[in-house]
Amino acid sequence: MTPSPVFEAGRYHFPQPAARPVIMIGSLELPSRYCLSPLAKYTNLAFRRVVRRCGGLGLGTCDLVNARALLAGSGKSLDLIRSTPDDTPFAVQIFGSDPVIMRDAAQFLQERGGMDAIDINMGCPVDHVTKSGAGASMMCNASSTVALVQTVVDAVSLPVTVKMRLGWDQHQLTAPRFAREFEQVGIKAVAIHGRTREQGFKGSVDLSGIRKVVEAVEHIPVIGNGDIRSIPDAARMFERTGCQAISIGRGALANPWIFRQLEEWELTGSYSPPGNFRQRMELVRLQFDLLNELDGERSALIAYRRTVHWYLKAMRVKASLRELVQRAQTAAEFHAAIKIIDDEGPLEGTRDGILPELQVPVPAGPVERW
User: Fold this and answer.
1) Is 182 helix (H, G, I), strand (E, B) or coil?
2) Of 62, 124, 140, 243, catalytic
3) For residue 260, pLDDT beyond 80
4) Does 3 sit behind a cis peptide bond, omega within 30 degrees of 0 on the bond before it?
5) Is the predicted pLDDT of residue 238 greater than 90, yes or no?
6) Which residues pair with 91 in a beta bridge?
């Protein structure tokens, strides 16, 4: 049974891992073995930059991008792939079922530049993706899927990775076979979410299923994903699966310091607490300011409404104060509302102390696009 961390002298103490492997994705060396999963509507450039400032992130990935829309010049798709010099290493995740379109999208991304890897989505469970033959439905068509992946790998010099689930359902657990064949055609890493498409986000992650994927490959790193919201969760993932790296989505939204904590744990066997209420409020302001800088005041207010509402609700801010933020029509009004919230503090805990553990609602909350 995994022990609980001990809190002493302002830090949590937890047995550190025996090994700290260097993770290579092709020729790309990651600064840590902790990656940010793609979260629909949430892992935009502003959020990735906020997480990077908290420290410890090894690889960031954008929300999944429709390859066909990207080639058509969709403004939304082009916005999704934006990056900045401080947003690195960075991977763009694309989805589609047509090998020619996927090949052309990968070549477009390489020519455009600004990213370090291209990721193929084979795990998104939502109907509008799977009904087009993309996302998790690719796990039902072995020969055509491997051929598509090889087409993309052969078309670019950037390292190509794949994200997938264990399979379509419990009767089609195809991930180990795919991982083995993907390695043979040149994929540089595989990320695996420990649920099937049929499960969605219900039930528990099957760590033994992830272990089978790890055992199926010879050299490439396997990145484990699912239900990692704390250092003990990460330790359990490493111990039971043998994976070399992990990817975190909703856990990072609730605690953007988790990557720094994981790095501290690996190096010292102890780690600092996540940010308190006041520090979280600083990140709320920072993310809005980064959005404002990118897209202007009006677009930032509209784009941030869903996210900031979820942040403030998770931080135990009372509904009447959250409504002040939702009604803001200018950046000045937004910052004035945030100041009122900052002055009043949360319903539980204190501004400067450790907050109660934040809960991430599923499926009503952010959804990882695996």
Assistant:
1) helix
2) 124
3) yes
4) no
5) yes
6) 61, 117
Query: Is 140 marked active-site?
Result: no
**By C-alpha distance, which of 224, 218, 235 is closest to 190?**
224
CA geometry: angle at 96 spanning 217 and 211, to 5°?
A: 25
Strands (E), the chain: 6-8, 11-13, 24-25, 28-29, 34-36, 60-61, 65-66, 90-95, 117-122, 160-165, 189-193, 222-225, 245-248, 270-271
Interatomic CA distance for residues 29 and 22, integer angstroms: 7
Whether 232 contacts 240, CB under 8 Å: no
Q: Which two tokens stand for residue 176?
A: 């180990």
Q: Is residue 90 within 8 Å of residue 49, measured between CB atoms?
A: no
pTM, full prediction: 0.92
- Scanning 81-220, the segments in alpha helix (DSSP H) are 99-112, 127-130, 142-155, 175-185, 207-216
* 206 pLDDT tier (thresholds 50, 70, 90): very high
| Dist CA 137 CA 100 (whole Å) | 18
Rounded-to-integer distance, Cα 256 and Cα 280, Å: 9
Type of residue numbered 353: G
Question: Which residue in this structure is represented by tokens 């264990």?
Answer: 166
- What are the distances in angstroms from CA 118 to CA 107, 190, 336, 369? 10, 12, 40, 15
